[in-house]
Amino acid sequence: MSYLIIDKVTKKFDGTVVLNEISLAVERGELVTLLGPSGCGKSTLLRCIAGLNEVDGGRILLNDRDITYLAPRKRGVGMVFQSYALFPNMTVYENIAFGLKMQGLKGDRIAARVREMIDLVGLAGKEGSYPRELSGGQQQRVALARSMIVEPDVLLLDEPFNALDAKIRKTLQMELKNIQKKSGMTMIFVTHDQEEALTISDRIFVINEGRVAQSGKPLEIYSQPANEFVARFIGNFNVLKGEEFEQLVGEPLFPGKSLAIRPEVIKLSLNGENGKGHNGSWRIKGKVVGVFLKGNILRYRVRSKDSILDVDVLNNSMDCSINYDTWVDLVIPKDEVKVLNL
Ligand SMILES: Nc1ncnc2c1ncn2[C@@H]1O[C@H](COP(=O)(O)OP(=O)(O)O)[C@@H](O)[C@H]1O
Ligand SMILES: [Mg+2]
After folding, report:
1. 171 and 43 in one domain?
2. Among 9, 13, 188, 193, which residue has the most ligand 1 atoms within 8 Å of its CB, making it the best to mutate?
3. Is 254 inside a domain boundary?
4. Which of 26, 139, 211, 225 is the S-S candidate for 4 at Cβ 3.0 to 4.6 Å?
């Protein structure tokens, strides 16, 4: 049996269904992500697991216990929020030690555990600092240590890095993954950021309107979207109707289907140079209607007949980018065209 089981959990607010018989299972020691757009019910599900929201139906099992109706403090669930919610009048050391003190542990045993946690989250030397003397990233490390030190059965993290700038955020993503692996703690991480989910997760649950739209390892979710919602939400797929695609390539192939094509699998070239279309691919012509610099990639938006396709190429800054209104050739490998369920 799985370590944490969400079994057909329903939650309504004022008659509006926010969690719609949602089911998912997490194994011990996993770091899973709930990924979905704002308002899809991610925080509500975390709050149901923590006991901060009462469910309207279904069951929640954790570590062989039915916790559906237990008081929050009896569940063995820890939580980290976007706002660090540290005690401003306590030092880093006191903030982290707080939970153990509440449990009635004695000073020397507390000291050993706090030291361990401080090393784990990389805060050595900051023991005597107050929260106001720390950066946002450091404060979030304190919040993480404070939640982990009491060793909850599962730690819930609700968009914990949202308030941090991009660079710190990326660093903390990597560190969280390391900390999680070292500690073996089961964690459920919530984010609306696809890249963040793909970076840190063992598995991802994509949530849409209070249900799981798809679950799987990051690479599966990224390369094999099960349905149109996931394809649109993850990885900037081009999503086309079958009829639209048939018009593009001139073959009746996918009536009534939706198709997804990743921007980086389409090869773009000028005037038929490099790469002829062959049996394994389609070749079409189009006109550049947009150019977007996205750091290490350049995204071209290309109009072909009535369709728009995004095409990503590695940004080799030695090359000049192709200008608006330029005619280009696109080669689309046949085995990269994914047929979606609705
Ligand atoms: N306490 C509440 N009372 C009424 N509606 C709520 C409450 N909490 C959340 N909602 C609604 O439930 C939906 C899901 O919210 P939430 O779980 O916070 O989404 P997410 O975390 O995925 O952005 C939203 O439409 C939100 O307005
Ligand atoms: Mg939320």
Report:
1. yes
2. 13
3. no
4. 26
Q: 18, 48, 81: which to mutate for ligand 1, most atoms within 8 A of CB?
A: 18
Ligand 1 atom having least distance to the Cα of 47: 17
- Residue 333, beta-bridge partner list: 281
Residue-wise pLDDT for 17-46, tens only, equals: 999 999 999 999 999 999 999 999 999 999
**295 and 169 inside one domain:** no
Is the model's pLDDT at 319 over the cut of 80?
Answer: no
DSSP label at residue 83? S
Q: Which helix (H) or strand (E) holds 65?
A: strand 65-66
The answer, yes or no, to whether residue 277 has pLDDT greater than 60, is no
Tell me 191's DSSP state. Answer: E
Distance of CA 41 from the midpoint of ligand 1 (Å): 6
> Same domain, yes or no, for 40 and 160?
yes
The CATH number for 153's domain is 3.40.50.300
Q: Which ligand does the CA of 42 lie closest to?
A: 1
Looking up residue 303, the CATH number of its domain turns out to be 2.40.50.140
Give the pLDDT score at 99.
94
- Give the strands of the sheet with 238-241, arranged side by side: 238-241, 258-261, 338-340
Q: Which atom of ligand 1 is nearest to the CA of 159?
A: 21
Dist CA 244 CA 156 (whole Å): 43
- Residues 283 and 193 grouped into a single domain: no
Average pLDDT over residues 132-141: 95
Considering every ligand atom, which ligand is closest to the CA of 41?
1
Task: Provide residues with CB under 6 Å of ligand 1.
Answer: 13, 18, 36, 38-44
